């Protein structure tokens, strides 16, 4: 769900010798698509040498760093893109993703807010911001964002799962159970969802039969923590 966006713009400036900005940029994008991220950085560096104000090259350079797990370098590159042109949501969204990976959740929310303000039609923003809000225990706002994502596509098991965690954090076990049921209906291999569903059914509603069945399903799928609950609450 955490997309990284290039935001390619056309550049027509040609040089008297060597490759043009656009040719170098295109080669960088090809390297990104091929998974050769170091090579992509080299191409985008050459674009920036020709034109330091090429905001797309800075943004794409950040994408290449992000894909390598070099989140600090990615943040610098996205910030440079924003400094040149702060009207595109893409570098804000990308920088938010880098902050999210660094667990700098407040900074991530800030950037997602900027991105959302610039283009509220981009639904990936809602899910990613929801994750950051969930991490900061801003449960009501997280639920709102997950609902926005589900309005676009209700068949997203992972969104239902994280919405359930926000609902449980917000002391809404009934809502959480419904979201977890939606999760396992869409993703029957989500062991963590079965575990959380079983635990909630047992602890919040004393639904032993359903709770134990879901805990056993979680254990069958490899979720070892379910064994303790089964031993304590599901023995005849």
Entry keywords:
236 residues; mainly alpha; Serine Threonine Protein Phosphatase 5, Tetratricopeptide repeat
Commentary on this structure:
With 236 residues, this protein is mostly helical. The chain has two domains: 1-120, Serine Threonine Protein Phosphatase 5, Tetratricopeptide repeat; 123-236, Alpha Horseshoe (Serine Threonine Protein Phosphatase 5, Tetratricopeptide repeat). The chain has helices at 21-33, 37-50, 55-67, 71-84, 89-101, 105-118, 124-135, 139-152, 157-169, 173-186, 191-205, 208-220, 226-233. The protein is elongated, with a radius of gyration of 22 Å.
Present the secondary structure layout:
Blueprint: H1 21-33, H2 37-50, H3 55-67, H4 71-84, H5 89-101, H6 105-118, H7 124-135, H8 139-152, H9 157-169, H10 173-186, H11 191-205, H12 208-220, H13 226-233
Helix pairs in contact: 1-2, 1-3, 2-3, 3-4, 3-5, 4-5, 5-6, 5-7, 6-7, 7-8, 7-9, 8-9, 9-10, 10-11, 11-12, 12-13
Compact summary:
It is elongated, with a radius of gyration of 22 Å. The relative contact order is 0.07.
């Amino acid at each position: 769900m955490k997309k990284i966006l290039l935001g390619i713009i056309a550049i027509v400036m040609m040089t008297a010798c060597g490759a043009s900005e656009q040719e170098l940029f295109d080669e960088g994008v090809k390297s990104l698509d091929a998974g050769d991220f170091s090579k992509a950085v080299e191409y985008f560096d050459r674009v920036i040498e020709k034109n330091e104000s090429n905001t797309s090259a800075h943004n794409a350079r950040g994408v290449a760093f992000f894909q390598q797990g070099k989140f600090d370098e990615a943040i610098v590159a996205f910030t440079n893109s924003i400094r040149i042109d702060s009207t595109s949501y893409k570098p804000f969204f990308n920088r938010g993703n880098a902050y999210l990976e660094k667990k700098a959740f407040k900074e991530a929310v800030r950037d997602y807010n900027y991105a959302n303000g610039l283009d509220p039609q981009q639904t990936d923003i809602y899910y990613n911001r929801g994750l950051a809000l969930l991490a900061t225990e801003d449960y009501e706002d997280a639920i709102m964002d997950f609902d926005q994502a589900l309005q676009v596509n209700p068949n997203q098991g992972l969104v239902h799962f994280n919405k359930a965690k926000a609902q449980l954090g917000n002391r809404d076990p009934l809502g959480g159970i419904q979201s977890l049921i939606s999760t396992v209906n869409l993703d029957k291999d989500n062991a963590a969802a079965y575990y959380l569903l079983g635990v909630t059914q047992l602890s919040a509603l004393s639904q032993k039969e359903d709770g134990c069945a879901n805990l056993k399903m979680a254990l069958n799928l490899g979720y070892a923590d379910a064994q303790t609950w089964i031993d304590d609450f599901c023995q005849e």
